[in-house]
Design goal:
alpha+beta, Tetrahydropterin Synthase, Chain A, four-stranded antiparallel beta sheet, 11 helices
């Protein structure tokens, strides 16, 4: 008895486990790339009509055994190549429209129901052929309602019309249109090619016209810029001249004020009288200027219409040309003056450098002479003594004497007791400036170690003293 109870309990446990496993095996999860279609007894619509299937995208559902079953619809996109040929357009011109459509099973609740009813159990190639037939028909319909110009130029409008028509028909079988790509459109008559050539020619002509207009605008802008430049340069030059004149006027006024204050400080009657005369002349000049100005205004009013305007224009042109020429001459003169100044400055710097070096040399000589300028001069003279003697010798070396005849009568009758020949030679040597005289001409005295230089009076006194009889 106890064994029978144990067996019964074990059998019950096994049955319970099998039931649980069977129940769990009927719980199905739907992947994200599929649609779970549950068919069988799945309830009824709101109007009481029985539902043919229940579609679930995402999530999970329990499949009742015996009462329900399930299948999956694949959501993988389907690419369909639609090579439409000889489609008749609105203008009765046949064209070729090669295109590629991408479709897929829709996940919208109502459209998924259509897919479950019409595509469940079909293979992928069968679904592709079904969609291709629908697309062919709708594409021909859209082409027949449009002109070639619209199809070729307004491609967005064409694709929108194709998408709307095709998608409406695809939704009836549970599909949705993902993408439309029209690769090219051509016709046998060459109409589209002619339109392209016409558009290209028009674009080229428009580009040439635009380039010509831009060139014209550029030349006009360049001319306007040059005109503005000339006007602004002339205005700047006039402003600069005006500033210079104002500065000169201020300087002149300041100078006049200074002179006036000096005249007042000195209280010179003549200066006061001159000031009064100047004021009287100034008033007379002003009165004359006003009269002349009135006369000029009257004359200008009579001649303004036909003479003054042209003359004024010519005058302004001449003034501008004269100002430009004057500016060129001023700049040229300034450049030449700067060049001369730079040259003279360089020469002055060179001369100053030479004098500085000579001064430094003389300073060294004075320092070598112990600070005694007289000794320094002696050193310089002693250094140049050989050159001085050479100059004295050169003074007579080129004298050409063919023959010298001397009648020497001895020392008879000579006051200094010398013979005629000795006097002749002595006179010849006296023609050469003595060394002492050379020093005197330079404003110096012969150094004592070279002897002393005596004047003519001193030599006469010395000679007289030598001839006096000794007591």
């Amino acid at each position: 008895m106890p064994e029978t109870i144990i067996v019964a309990v074990m059998v019950g446990v096994v049955v319970l486990i099998a039931l649980i496993i069977a129940i769990l095996s009927r719980y199905r999860k739907c992947p994200s790339d599929k649609v779970l279609v549950i068919y069988g007894k799945v309830g009824s619509e709101k109007n009481g009509q029985a539902r043919s299937a229940k579609c679930i995208h995402g999530g999970a559902a329990f499949i009742f055994p015996v009462l329900q079953s399930f299948q999956y619809l694949d959501l993988t996109p389907i690419s369909i190549n639609v090579d439409l040929k000889n489609a008749l357009s609105k203008q009765n011109i046949r064209i070729d429209v090669p295109s590629r459509f991408t479709v897929g099973i829709s996940t919208e609740p109502g459209i998924m129901q259509n897919a479950a009813e019409r595509l469940l159990g079909l293979r992928m190639n069968e679904i592709q052929e079904l969609a291709k037939d629908i697309i062919f028909g709708q594409l021909r319909l859209v082409v027949a309602t449009m002109d070639i110009e619209e199809i070729n130029t307004d491609r967005d409008k064409f694709l929108l019309a194709v998408s709307n028509n095709v998608e409406i028909e695809l939704k009836k079988i549970g599909l949705r249109l993902i993408n439309v790509n029209v690769t090219d459109i051509n016709d046998e008559s060459g109409y589209i090619e002619a339109l392209g050539k016409e558009a290209a020619a028009k674009a080229i002509n428009d580009a040439k016209k635009s380039v010509a207009e831009k060139d014209r605008d550029g030349e006009i802008g360049k001319s306007n810029a040059l005109r503005d430049q000339r006007i602004q340069v002339s205005a700047a030059n006039a402003e600069a001249i005006k500033g210079e004149n104002s500065a000169k006027i201020e300087v002149a006024q300041s100078e006049a004020a200074r002179r006036e204050k000096e005249a007042e400080a000195l209280r010179v009657a003549t200066a006061a009288e001159a000031v009064q005369n100047a004021k009287a002349k100034e008033e007379a000049y002003n009165a004359q200027k006003e009269a002349e100005q009135t006369r000029a205004n009257l004359e200008r009013a009579t001649q303004q219409a036909d003479i003054i305007v042209k003359a004024q224009i010519a005058k302004e042109q001449a003034e501008i040309a004269a100002e430009a020429e004057a500016e060129v001459m001023r700049r040229k003169a300034k450049g030449e003056a700067d060049a001369i100044f730079a040259k003279m400055e360089a020469q002055a710097n060179g001369a100053r450098e030479i004098l500085q070096k000579q001064a430094e040399g003389l300073r060294e000589i004075v320092n070598a002479a112990g600070g005694n300028a007289d000794d320094a001069v002696k050193l310089i003279v002693s250094d140049k003594l050989e050159e001085l003697m050479r100059i004295q010798v050169d003074a007579i070396k080129n004298i050409k004497i063919d023959k010298v005849t001397v009648w020497d009568s001895g020392a008879n009758g000579s006051p200094d007791g010398k013979s005629s020949t000795a006097n002749f030679i002595s006179g010849m040597m006296k023609a050469v400036p003595p060394l002492g005289e050379v020093f005197k001409q330079a404003g110096m005295d012969l150094p004592s170690f070279l002897g002393t230089s005596a004047t003519e009076e001193e030599r006469a006194e010395q000679a007289a003293a030598a001839n006096e009889p000794k007591a």
